[in-house]
């Protein structure tokens, strides 16, 4: 190395150092720049552990979601269509108007695709697995026995509604959506959620744009527990376009349908309306989660108005608190159940357990969950709803002196009569009321009133 080239190198490293310093100084400014136009997402995993992925294009206030391949391999042209739509909007993000954030989930049923079947890995038809009881159409309510294509009747609705990992992923991801399009094939029609005006309007516009036939109702055979009816029941504009063929993506037609929807997005994608339950206004997205996850039988009624927090809204119900966090809209956790069990009831020292036979052991907290509690925990939503067990199940008495069994979880407390054998005898304890009483005792108004 010559002396001169050494100087040059040193000069270059000084310039490099200055550049690094400048970058470090400007990084906070970069962090505050608008979110990128196109974002890749992983929303959850299938029964066999395959990722369920999506893409977001744009960052407007209205959430529109396109879903492909709910019915796996036989409807793989809907997966190809969704992939082509992803590529189109990746290349043309400006085609998504500023009021919209567009999500595309190309493959809701990756196990069905891998296993060359319509159902998921558990043999459940995901478009017959939803709790559709919130709408005004009792004939579409969930049933284990279902009708499918070609007149085939089978017990593929699942052991209970929302039983499948994939159903829970799309359910929780859509809670803050304004519109959703579920692509299927191959009947060549577009139909809306039952008796839901915004869905009917959306179906008409999409059908006109795509050149498919609009039908007000699918009446070739009954669809129970369908995703479009589930979404419509919660106030989300929801439609099912059926491609004409079983093997072509029909990209140009469906792009025209999507573009027609995007052009009229403000009219077609209504934002959720406030709800009143038991005399309390319920925050609209919290209302959807409360209704979708079990409603009054599981969580009880609201006992206080919604409260605005630093990152969204929270609201107390008799047996749980609900938290809505708009910044989590790219995930399945925009609505969460508050950690009332952990906040209110966990003693400082809890003896850990070793794994017991006939129990589900949670290594994270070293506790077992068994019998009616295990069934109740799993059937009613599992980890996101109840959290991990924080104690062993313990025998105690309720306020009337009757013997009960109780177990504390992160987000609630399960209790049942001592001799209960069924998960139907399990309830969440009224921790919302406990929390409300504590807040009430702390509030200055109450203290003045007590004096
Ligand atoms: Zn289908």
Describe the main β-sheet briefly: 9 strands, mixed
Shape-level CATH architecture of the largest domain? 3-Layer(aba) Sandwich
Q: Number of domains in the coordinates?
A: 3
CATH evolutionary superfamily of the largest domain: Zn peptidases
Characterise this structure:
- It contains 15 helices and 23 strands.
- It has 451 residues and is an alpha+beta fold.
- It folds into three domains: 38-268, Zn peptidases (Aminopeptidase), CATH 3.40.630; 275-338, no CATH class; 359-437, no CATH class.
- Strands 1, 2, 3, 4, 7, 8, 9, 10 and 11 form a nine-stranded mixed sheet that branches. A four-stranded antiparallel sheet has the order 14-15-16-17.
- Helix 5 packs across helix 7 (251-263).
- The site of zinc ion has 4 residues, from loops.
What are its keywords?
disordered C terminus; 15 helices; globular; 451 residues; disordered N terminus; 3 domains; four-stranded antiparallel beta sheet
Summarize the structure.
By secondary structure, the protein is an alpha+beta fold.
Describe how the helices and strands are arranged:
Layout: H1 3-31, E1 38-45, E2 51-57, E3 62-67, H2 76-91, E4 100-105, H3 110-114, E5 146-147, E6 153-154, H4 165-173, E7 179-182, E8 184-185, E9 189-192, H5 197-210, E10 213-214, H6 227-233, E11 237-243, H7 251-263, H8 265-268, E12 275-277, E13 280-282, H9 284-293, H10 295-299, E14 307-309, E15 312-316, E16 321-324, E17 335-337, H11 340-345, E18 359-362, E19 367-370, H12 371-379, H13 383-386, E20 394-397, E21 403-408, E22 413-417, E23 427-428, H14 431-442, H15 444-450
Parallel strand pairs: 3-4, 3-7, 7-11, 8-11, 9-10
Antiparallel strand pairs: 1-2, 2-4, 5-6, 9-11, 12-13, 14-15, 15-16, 16-17, 18-19, 20-21, 21-22, 22-23
Helix pairs in contact: 5-7
Bound molecules: zinc ion (ZN).
Residues 71, 75, 127, 184 line the site of zinc ion (ZN).
């Amino acid at each position: 190395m010559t002396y001169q080239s050494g100087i040059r190198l040193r000069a270059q490293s000084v310039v490099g150092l200055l550049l690094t310093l400048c970058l470090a100084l400007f990084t906070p400014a970069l962090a505050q720049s608008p979110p990128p136009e196109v974002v890749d997402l992983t929303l959850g995993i299938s029964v066999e552990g395959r990722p369920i992925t999506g893409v977001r294009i744009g960052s407007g206030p209205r959430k529109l979601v396109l879903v492909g391949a709910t019915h796996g391999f036989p409807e793989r042209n809907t997966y190809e269509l969704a992939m082509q739509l992803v590529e189109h909007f990746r290349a043309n993000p400006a085609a998504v108007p500023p009021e919209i954030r567009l999500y595309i989930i190309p493959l809701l049923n990756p196990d069905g695709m891998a296993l060359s079947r319509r159902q998921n890995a558990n043999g459940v038809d995901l478009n017959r697995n939803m709790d559709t009881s919130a709408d005004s159409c009792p004939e579409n309510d969930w049933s284990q026995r279902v009708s499918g294509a070609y007149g085939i009747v089978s017990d593929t609705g699942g052991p209970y509604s929302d039983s499948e990992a994939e159903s829970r992923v799309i359910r929780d991801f859509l809670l803050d959506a304004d519109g959703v399009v579920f692509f299927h094939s191959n009947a060549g029609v577009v139909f809306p959620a039952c008796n839901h005006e915004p869905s009917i309007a959306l179906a008409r516009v999409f059908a006109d744009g795509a050149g498919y036939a609009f039908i007000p109702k699918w009446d070739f055979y009954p669809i129970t527990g369908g995703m479009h009816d589930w979404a419509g029941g919660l106030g989300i504009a929801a439609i099912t376009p059926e491609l004409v063929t079983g093997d072509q993506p029909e990209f140009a037609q469906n792009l025209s349908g999507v573009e027609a929807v995007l052009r009229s997005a403000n009219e077609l994608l209504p934002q959720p309306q406030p709800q009143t339950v038991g005399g309390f206004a319920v925050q609209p997205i919290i209302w959807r989660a409360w209704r979708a996850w079990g409603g009054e039988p599981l969580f009880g009624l609201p006992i206080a108005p919604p409260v605005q927090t630093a990152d969204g809204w929270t609201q107390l119900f008799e047996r749980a608190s609900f938290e809505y966090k708009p910044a989590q809209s790219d995930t399945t956790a925009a609505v969460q159940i508050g950690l009332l069990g952990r906040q209110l009831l966990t003693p400082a020292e809890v003896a850990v357990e070793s794994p017991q036979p006939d129990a589900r052991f949670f290594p994270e907290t070293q506790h077992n969950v068994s019998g009616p509690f295990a069934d109740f925990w799993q059937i009613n939503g599992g980890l996101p709803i109840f959290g991990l067990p924080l104690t062993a199940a313990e025998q105690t008495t309720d306020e009337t002196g009757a013997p009960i069994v109780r177990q504390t979880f992160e987000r609630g407390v399960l209790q049942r009569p001592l001799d209960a054998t069924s998960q139907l005898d399990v309830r969440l304890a009224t921790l919302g009321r406990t929390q409300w009483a504590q807040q009430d005792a702390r509030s200055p108004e109450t203290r003045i009133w007590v004096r």
